[in-house]
Amino acid sequence: MTFHRETIAPSMRLHQLFLVGLLALVIWLMSKPAWAVSLIRDPDIEHALQQVAQPVLSAAGLGGSVKILVVNDNSLNAFVLDQQHIYIHLGMLMKMENAGMLQAVIAHEAAHIRNGHIARRIANLGTARSAAGLGTALALAVAAATGNAAAAGIALGAQSAAERRFLAHTRAEEASADNSGARFMTNAHIDPEHAVDVHKLFRGQELLNVSRQDPYVRSHPLTRDRIRAMEAYANAYKGKIAPQPEADYWFIRAKAKALAFTRAPNWNLRKVSSIPYEDVRLMAKAAAYLRLSDREQALFNIDAAIALRPKDAFFYELKGQILSDTRQFQAAVPAYKKAAELAPNNALCLAGYGHALLTAGQTKEALAVLEAARSRDFRNARLLRDLGSAYAKEGQNGMASLAVAERYALQGRLKDAEIHAKRASALLPTGSGAWRRAEDIVKAAKRARTK
After folding, report:
1. What GO cellular component entries does it have (predicted)?
2. What is the pLDDT of residue 444?
3. pTM across the whole model
4. Domain of 322?
5. Quick one: average pLDDT of 305-325?
6. Residues 231 and 98 in one domain
7. Is 417 domain-assigned?
8. Domain of residue 277, CATH code
9. What is the number of structural domains in the chain?
């Protein structure tokens, strides 16, 4: 575990992809500084959440275009910043009691996308100069390089004023999202009573001082009328919708994997017996033993899980992590390779396989796999670090400098990114795709300084 491709307008040049992709990844949230925010990138968790979300997203007409990502933050919140991602705080995931409650949150956020609320909020953001006053240098860089007005909203949320402007939805929008979200749920055969349960979690928080409220309440203001309307809608479907065991499985699996790597391992071992699925119990135990540096028990449990689900790519990915983290680099390669074979389009599995090849000394093979991973998801800092290392080992210094520049840009370190991008630009063939990517970073960094 570390802490799809973006939909880009056809008219946009390919070398703009990297900077546009930053818009969806660099998240600046609520009351904490942006640099303290990170995503939990784990292929098993992301796949599981996508399985939970898919019925709702399909009912919303969004299909597979929206990805669910987890923010490494224990507060309760969920939000959207663009039309391709729904962000769920780790704290919100942990608070949800079942798949239906999580689907209710996802349905509500999907409604904001489907109903065009994001586009209207972005249109109301104001000038780039006001964003610069909030320290949104990276947002300005993206806006300058791509001409994308949405980029101006990338960093909003780090300051309370920005939070009020960008994340505080109107009550009319919230009521609209409630109605649409509930309809998406029923169309997907999900009990809308779960939406009522989510509302009840936050009831009464509006009476608290703002500093004591959960972020979700500040960005999703509740009213008694909204709750009553949702209760009335849910009552009309009471007893008419069957359970959804598949969604429950994936919800429990996502939650168990997240707990396994974010809570104390001994705590997890005490609680693991409450997990109703044997393969998930074994996976959670394997992760706990890994964190306790007990490789033998970690491998024993993950192998037992694989025996139950021999075609599960993500169990093989965890086995690869166990071997890699315990410095069994050569042994990790076939485990990661199997994961990549079973999930050939999963960028995180490919990145893990590439990392294993690199640490095992198979640099040329690593480069091919890492570039395949990058083509699917260029927002992975470790992947870019590995690419830089692999290119350097192969003597391709221009490409190595470009990977470093892109990694720094991804982290918002535009000054450092510019230094390495200039170096890459001088070494790469003029006019090549890689050269254009380097030049874009240089231009973005310069324009950010002048705003």
Report:
1. membrane
2. 86
3. 0.80
4. 264-450
5. 98
6. yes
7. yes
8. 1.25.40.10
9. 2
